[in-house]
Write a structure and sequence with these properties.
alpha+beta, 6 helices, globular
């Protein structure tokens, strides 16, 4: 849990992130820089009509903590200048690193996975690629567990130490299959022992503290679907494939 001052200290707005679909602000609590997304600034979505985006963001953090992979930066609910909302610790990513890219050249043979190929506005062939790293693999497993419908390229923060954080998890935990991601490079690959152990920790946690905490944030149907996804992943022991008629990647990609 956040330190008490982060829960009760004055949240001062510094600026607004205008590229975000919903009201998103950068703020400070004392010396700590945070992202603040008030519930009052959420726009209704036809395919996510129930619940609040802020609640799903916090639920995603709780699952990340049980996985023990530190995918989601510390996230919590609290009051702010525009009412109750999600607050998350700001992460300063490395501008010289990109974990996901669109490239116009041949995909490197090692260290990268190609997701799809297409054409840009000039008719040139481009490829969507992401790095082949344990940190990004863990994020892909996390996305499959929480049913992330919006893993865009710029929702992956490349940190200087090689860690990768995932952000913007408001479109998660739908009871129906909604997985839309740019991280399809391991499709069909076997899950590692570590990855399976993380899924097991979530399954076990749903019968204990994790389940109790999620009950305040998600519907009973959403929690039941989360339980079923963990069971299917554990049984299949491999990365899932796209299914249904819905797009497999979000749009825009970044």
């Amino acid at each position: 849990m956040p330190a008490p001052d982060l829960l009760t200290g004055e949240l001062i707005l510094i600026g607004r992130i205008t590229t975000a679909s919903n009201a998103t602000f950068v703020g400070s609590i004392g010396d700590t820089t945070v992202v603040y997304k008030p519930i009052a600034g959420e726009k209704p979505l036809w395919d996510f009509p129930d619940g609040f985006l802020a609640h799903r963001e916090v639920a995603a953090y709780l699952v990340s903590e049980v996985l023990r992979w530190n995918v989601v930066p510390r996230t919590w609910l609290r009051d702010g200048p525009l009412g109750k909302g999600m607050v998350q610790l700001w992460q300063e990513s490395d501008p010289d690193q990109n974990a996901v890219e669109l490239i116009a050249t041949e995909v490197p043979e090692t260290g990268w996975k190609q997701v799809l190929e297409g054409q840009d506005e000039s008719g040139r062939t481009v490829a969507l690629v992401h790095e082949d790293s344990p940190a990004l693999r863990r994020m892909a497993v996390f996305d499959a567990v929480v049913n992330n419908a919006d893993r865009k390229g710029n929702h992956v923060l490349a940190m200087k130490d090689g860690h990768r954080h995932g952000v913007d998890h408001g479109l998660t935990f739908h009871r129906d299959h909604k997985l839309r991601t740019v991280l399809w490079g391991w499709l069909g690959d076997k899950l590692t022992t570590e990855e399976l152990a993380g899924i097991d920790r979530v399954s076990e946690g749903l019968h204990g503290e994790l389940g109790r905490n999620l009950a305040d944030l998600l519907s009973g149907e959403e929690i039941a679907s989360l339980t079923a996804r963990c069971t299917r992943l554990r049984s299949a022991r491999q990365f899932p494939a796209p299914s249904g008629d819905m797009p497999a990647v979000p749009w825009p990609l970044f």
